[in-house]
Amino acid sequence: MQTNVTSSTEKNAKTTDAMYQYMVDCGFGIRHLDWLCLTLAMEYVYQPTPRFWRDFKVGDLLDAVTRLIPGWQTTIEADSQHRMLGDIQDILRMYAFDEENAQRLLELPVADRPADAESTSNWICRELESAGRFDDVAYARPDGDECGQRVLDMLSILFADADQWPELRIGTLVAHAYRDAIMQRQKAHI
Q: Does an H or E element contain 16, and which?
C-alpha cells in the first residue's frame, strides 16, 4: 500500500515539475494565467496511460503556478480566479469522461466496438443509461456526436506507438510545438 502512495506522490511531483518547467521555458508570467495557457501546460505533460486524466490533480497545476508566480492569487481578482479554475475543471472533466469511455470501449472485443462518431456516441449513452448515470448521459448529448469522436480519438491514442501519440492528440501537439517555437526564438536571440 505504501508503494502505491509513494509512486502516486512521485508521479504527481514529476507532473508538477514538468508543468513548471514548461511554464518557465515558455516564459509564462501573470498574463498567461488563463484557461488556455494552463491547458497547454497540462497537455504538455499528458501521457497516454489509461487513467492519466482521471488521476490528474488540479492541485498539481496550481502548485506549478505558485512555484512560478508566488502570491499569484493576490494578483488576480477572485472572480477571475474562480472562472479560470472552473474552466480548467470543465476541461479536465471532459478529458476524464472521454478517457473513461475510451477505456470502456477497450474492454469490448474489437468486432463489437462502434467504429464511427455517431455509433460511439449512441453506445456511450446506452451504457451510461443502463448504469443509471443520467447526469453523464446529459453531459454526453449536448454536443451531438463530438463526444463519440473524442472517445474514438482517445482510443487511437491509447493504441498508438509511443513515437506517434503526441501527433495524434492535437492539444499535446500544440503544447509541444508552442514550447519548441519559444525555445527556438530564445536561442536565436542569444
A: helix 2-25
Question: pTM for the complete prediction?
Answer: 0.86
What the block records as the C-alpha cell of 150 is: 473524442
Nearest Cα to Cα of residue 41 among 155, 139, 178, 162: 178
CA 116 to chain centre: 23
3-state secondary structure of 113: coil
Q: Are 23 and 64 in contact (CB under 8 A)?
A: yes
Q: Per-domain residue ranges for the chain?
A: 2-188
How many CA atoms, within 13 angstroms, populate the side-chain half-sphere of residue 166? 12
Q: What angle do CA 90, 91, 94 make, to 5 degrees?
A: 90
Q: How does pLDDT run across 45-57, given as a tens digit for each residue?
A: 998 888 999 999 9
In whole angstroms, give the CA distance from residue 44 to residue 52: 13
Distance CA 124, CA 152 (A): 11
